[in-house]
Structure formats: structure tokens, C-alpha cells
């Protein structure tokens, strides 16, 4: 009995040693001969966790069915090295969420770290491989090239890249689409209710029409349905621009004090409607001030004309700005960071040009009235512009 126990002990010890040798040897991956391995990323694989909305470490017992696996590559610390990728099944390579190319089966693919750093200008790069489930058939090595006679770099392979980015949905992108739909619905409603007035209001040439026999203000008073809804649309366009600035950390007129944290689409929509209501009320408060100033300067007949032209020009300017911002937002062009110092320049140029245009278009005969008109326009245009620029940023 004692000899049998002794024999079983040695048999178990030998079997355990052999299995440990095979286990340690199976994990080793050898790159091609012209490369010297520096680091193996086999233990750095990550998977995206929807619950935490972030990447977590790959777990054999939990994430074995994951076909997308990712890892972060430090580009700044690993300059002058190359990345080698290989998969035992046909897979696809993504860099920063953008599809780059196909990884052929059992073929090493080289990515130059210096080239990646020049292209993406980031210290850390997200690399993703899509293929079969798990990580057992995927290998990513950081290597040093022994020979410098191989000209293959990521720039040369870039001509064959597919470069297809997946569709991403952000709260501001959803809000932009909803606001565009709302503005289009209101525009269509105004057009169906009064097509002739709507066409004339959105016509830039109509702004310069100073024929006293064919004034648009004669059939469209500031309190008529068409003009009121036109002011609503203009207020929504202005509100969209302010929300866009606020979403990009540009606090215009300190509006962040009355707005939410913008963590979801509903909160952004709530801010949008609040700002639209404020701009609508301010527009008609301005009209009341225009009427009071016009009565004092004996320009009461010009007030409706000037107000309508102010609304018309504001609509054209902010509609063009809305389309510009909307297009750039959906193309993920980060232009506001570099243009932050000059963001008020288009507004200053527009309001200054509108002041001159209003004076030329609405100028009545008589030098004394011209002086009154100039003073009137300074009160309703120039003074608010100066005060607004002072407190804008």
C-alpha cells in the first residue's frame, strides 16, 4: 500500500510538471525574424461595457463571445517602434473607431508608431480588432526593427485604407436633428398659411426694397400671425447657436447659469425652448422700445418697416449660421477651439452692416428727419450692440 501511494505521488508530480511546461510554452508568440519583440499586448485586451459606458479588461469567463476586442497603445512612449498584428482568422482593423483595412489570415501586419503619431496627433491610440470570438487567435506585439531596409509604413498602406467611420449618436447631434425638424415644420406651416408673404420675407432682395407703394410692412404688421411665427423661428435659430456655443464650453452672456448640465437630449431641448422664449420676448420688448423712441422722434411711420427688416435680416443671417454649424457638427469638425478668439467677429460684422443698410434703405427725404433716423438707429442698433459685445464673453 505504501509503495502504491509513493508511485502515485511521483506520477502526479511528473504529469503536473509536463503540463506546466506545455502551458508556459503555448503562450509565447514569435514575430518574424527581422523584428525583435519588446512587449506583448496579450494581457491588455479590453472590451466595451455598455453598463459602465467604458472599456474594461477582457475576462475569459465573461467576454469569450466578444468579437470586438480593443487595446490602448501609448504612441508617445513607444516612438520608433512598430506594431505587429496577426489573426488566425480573417479580421478587420479599426483605429479610433475608424475602419482601416483587413487583416489577412495568419499574416503579420505592420503599423509604424511614428507614422500613427503624426497622423492622429494623440498620445494614446485606441486599436480595435473585429473577427472571431475571443482573443486566443489574435496577437499584437510591440517590436523593434532589426533591419531598416523595409519601407512598409502606415502612410504607404494608407492609400488602400477603406476609412469608413461608424455612425455615432451624441445628445447634441440628436438635438440638432430635432431642432431642424421643428424649424422646418414651422416654416412649412407659415408657407401654407401665407405663401406670398413667406416668400417675400425670406427673399434677400426684398430687404433692399424701399418703394413706399409696395412696402411689405403694409400687409404684415409686427403682431400679425405670419410675423409672430417668423419671429419664433428666428428666436429658435438664435437659441440653437447659443446652445451650440454652450455645449462647446463657450459661455455667451453667462447663459450657463440658467441652463442644465446637458447630459442628455431632453435637457438640451429644454434649454433650447427656454432660450427661444427669452429671445422671442426680447424681440418684442425691443419692438416696444422702438415704438416709444419712434414716437418721440416723429418716426412712428418708419417703425414697422424697420422692425420687419430687422427680423428679415436676422432670419437670413441666423439661418445661414444654423446650416453652417449644423453641417460642421455632424461632420465632427472641431473648429470652434481654434476660432474661439474670433467667434464674435461675424456677429459684429453683421450688425454693423445691418445698421448701415437700414439707414440707406429706410432714409426718408429731409435732412432733419435723416438726423432723427440716424439717432433712432443708434439707439435701437448700435447701443445694444456695444453693450452686448461688452458682456458677451
Strands, helices and their partners?
Blueprint lengths: L1 H25 L8 E6 L5 E4 L4 E4 L10 E7 L7 E6 L3 E5 L2 E6 L5 E4 H8 L3 E7 L7 E8 L8 H4 L13 H23 L1 H7 L2 H4 L17 H23 L17 H32 L3 H31 L14 H17 L5 H26 L1
Antiparallel strand pairs: 1-10, 2-3, 4-9, 5-8, 5-10, 6-7, 6-9
Helix pairs in contact: 4-5, 4-7, 4-8, 7-8, 7-9, 8-9, 10-11
Structure write-up:
The protein is an alpha+beta fold. 51% of the residues lie in helices and 15% in strands. The protein is built from eleven helices and ten strands. It has helices spanning 2-26, 113-120, 154-157, 171-193, 195-201, 204-207, 225-247, 265-296, 300-330, 345-361, 367-392, and strands at residues 35-40, 46-49, 54-57, 68-74, 82-87, 91-95, 98-103, 109-112, 124-130, 138-145. A four-stranded antiparallel β-sheet has the order 1-10-5-8. Helix 10 (345-361) packs antiparallel against helix 11 (367-392). The N and C termini lie far apart (92 Å).
Amino acid at each position: 500500500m505504501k509503495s502504491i501511494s509513493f508511485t502515485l505521488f511521483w506520477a502526479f508530480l511528473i504529469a503536473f510538471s509536463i503540463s506546466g511546461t506545455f502551458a508556459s510554452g503555448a503562450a509565447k508568440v514569435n514575430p518574424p525574424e527581422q523584428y525583435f519583440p519588446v512587449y506583448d499586448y496579450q494581457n491588455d485586451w479590453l472590451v466595451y461595457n455598455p453598463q459602465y459606458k467604458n472599456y474594461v479588461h477582457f475576462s475569459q469567463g465573461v467576454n469569450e463571445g466578444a468579437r470586438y476586442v480593443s487595446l490602448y497603445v501609448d504612441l508617445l512612449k513607444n516612438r520608433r517602434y512598430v506594431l505587429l498584428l496577426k489573426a488566425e482568422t480573417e479580421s478587420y482593423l479599426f483605429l479610433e473607431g475608424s475602419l482601416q483595412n483587413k487583416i489577412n489570415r495568419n499574416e503579420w501586419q505592420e503599423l509604424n508608431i511614428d507614422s500613427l503619431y503624426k497622423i492622429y496627433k494623440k498620445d494614446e491610440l485606441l486599436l480595435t480588432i473585429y473577427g472571431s470570438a475571443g482573443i486566443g487567435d489574435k496577437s499584437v506585439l510591440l517590436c523593434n526593427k532589426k533591419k531598416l531596409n523595409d519601407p512598409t509604413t502606415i502612410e504607404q498602406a494608407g492609400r488602400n485604407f477603406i476609412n469608413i467611420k461608424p455612425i455615432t449618436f451624441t445628445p447634441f447631434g440628436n438635438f440638432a436633428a430635432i431642432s431642424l425638424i421643428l424649424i422646418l415644420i414651422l416654416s412649412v406651416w407659415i408657407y401654407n398659411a401665407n405663401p406670398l408673404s413667406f416668400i417675400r420675407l425670406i427673399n434677400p432682395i426684398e430687404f433692399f426694397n424701399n418703394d413706399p407703394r409696395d412696402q411689405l410692412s403694409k400687409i404684415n404688421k409686427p403682431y400679425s400671425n405670419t410675423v409672430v411665427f417668423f419671429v419664433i423661428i428666428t428666436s429658435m435659430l438664435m437659441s440653437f447657436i447659443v446652445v451650440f456655443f454652450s455645449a462647446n464650453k463657450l459661455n455667451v452672456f453667462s447663459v450657463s447659469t440658467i441652463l442644465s448640465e446637458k447630459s442628455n437630449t431632453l435637457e438640451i431641448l429644454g434649454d433650447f425652448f427656454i432660450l427661444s422664449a427669452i429671445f422671442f420676448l426680447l424681440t418684442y420688448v425691443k419692438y416696444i422700445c422702438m415704438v416709444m423712441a419712434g414716437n418721440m422722434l416723429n418716426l412712428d411711420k418708419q417703425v414697422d418697416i424697420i422692425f420687419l427688416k430687422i427680423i428679415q435680416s436676422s432670419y437670413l443671417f441666423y439661418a445661414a449660421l444654423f446650416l453652417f454649424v449644423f453641417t460642421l457638427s455632424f461632420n465632427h469638425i472641431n473648429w470652434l477651439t481654434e476660432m474661439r478668439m474670433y467667434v464674435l467677429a461675424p456677429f459684429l460684422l453683421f450688425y454693423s452692416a445691418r445698421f448701415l443698410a437700414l439707414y440707406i434703405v429706410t432714409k426718408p427725404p429731409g435732412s432733419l428727419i435723416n438726423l432723427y433716423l440716424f439717432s433712432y438707429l443708434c439707439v435701437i442698433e448700435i447701443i445694444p450692440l456695444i453693450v452686448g459685445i461688452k458682456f458677451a464673453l
